[in-house]
Amino acid sequence: MESIWKRTIEEENELIPDKRKSLTGDVHTEAAVIGAGLAGILTAWFLQSQGVKTVVVEAETAGSGQTQNTTAKITSQHGVIYHKLLETLGREKAAAYACASQAAVGEYERIIREQAIACFFEKKPAYLYTREKGEMEEKLLKEAQAAKSLGLPASFTKKPKDPKDLPFSIAGGVRFEEQAQFHPLRFLHALAKKLVIYEHTRVLEAEEHCLITKQGRIFADHIVFAGHYPFLLRPGYYFLRMHQERSYCLALKNGIIPSAMYLGTDEDGLSLRGFQDMIILGGGKHRTGENKNGGRYGMLRRKAEEFWPDSREYAHWSAQDCMTLDGVPYIGRFCGDIPNWYVATGFGKWGMTNSMVAARLISDRILGREREEGEVFSPQRFTPSASAASFITDGVHAARDLGRRVFQKPEISLEELPAGQGGIVEVDGQKAGAYRDEDGELYVVSIKCPHLGCQLEWNPDEKSWDCPCHGSRFDFRGRLLDGPAENGVDTTEELC
Fold this sequence. Notes:
The protein is an alpha+beta fold. The protein has helices at about 5-10, 40-50, 80-90, 90-115, 135-150, 185-190, 295-305, 350-365, 375, 385-405; strands at about 25-35, 55, 75, 120-130, 155, 170-180, 195-200, 205, 210-215, 215-225, 240-255, 260-265, 270-275, 280-285, 310-325, 330-335, 340-345, 420-425, 430-435, 440-445, 455-460, 465, 475, 480.
């Protein structure tokens, strides 16, 4: 499965960058950035533009992580959040969050114009919408009022400006002007060409001024952790302060292309935006590791058939997002004890906007410039009114999921496992994860997540083993797909 961004850039061969080298031996630099997604690339680009010698180290290839799986909306519209921020964080911090998010849209526009980057950047309005009258409609009205009071270009509406945009009616919505969309990989590779990036170089350990890999060490005055989810358990303890969620997308041809961007706030709400002659339809979100029954792509395909009967699927893919306790990313000092470490994580569903926010905040801090809005994003913040409910919920999930490996019985015998399906089975008295492909070949793996030992669960939509505790993912062969785990799971083919 390839996203629309990866597939289209591969079809334009001249845009694929030359193969970058891995690290060979030790290097010394002023700043080292872990992760060549958009947050890491932007941070390195800002630093290098200001004369700071910077290198980026990436476990796979530049742009191969969450950046390539985004819907690529650049917005200050981040779901139903501003009314909550006003209540839990206060007006000053809520305004700082709003200002930083809206400024990110303008910063993308400036860079794209100045660097002449052809990345299909378009200014578009962005809508939050509900199809349900009553409580949710009232909630969006309050959200519009809150966002507007914080200086954002928001207003409440009963219908889209263009009635052809949506194949269904809405009860109400919040319209944000001056938002944008683009092609994220075109943008990323344009900036990456000007940077030193070591690909296929996974960081295994970090010391105060040193990153350790199999290929060598990187000595740096400043270290930035921008790899989606920090791989270190401590300091920072980010695994206690975040969970991960997945969502799914289709790219469709032969439909009516919306003139704006849309996000549904109902339980089954859908995301829509256009790209050239295609519609990007998204939805089906769930906590990572909790998709036992699958059917997320099937749901989207049924919607596509209902809304645009003549449409044709061009691509399908999924994304993974880190969700913080209070809904605000962790951007700034990694921890209180190591002043030269920085982190950018917990972007929620808004990775494009928050990548820019993170890059500006962290690069300015390294350059000795403090931004006023930095406090609201500080990883050291204490927000009990905004975080308490999420902390309890995440704790309950972790306790339950850690106990599954001990107490939950296998779901099916190995012999009964049908072709094309996976599940937890018993092999020689031990629980294991098994997948039987369409040709009948078996792939058996350990169901113990190498991160903190939670029981993995089968995701039939992705044919992957997902951790419900902290979101690590592995393919049916046991190979690592997503962190925070650093290694794949043990294969147990000998048990067959």
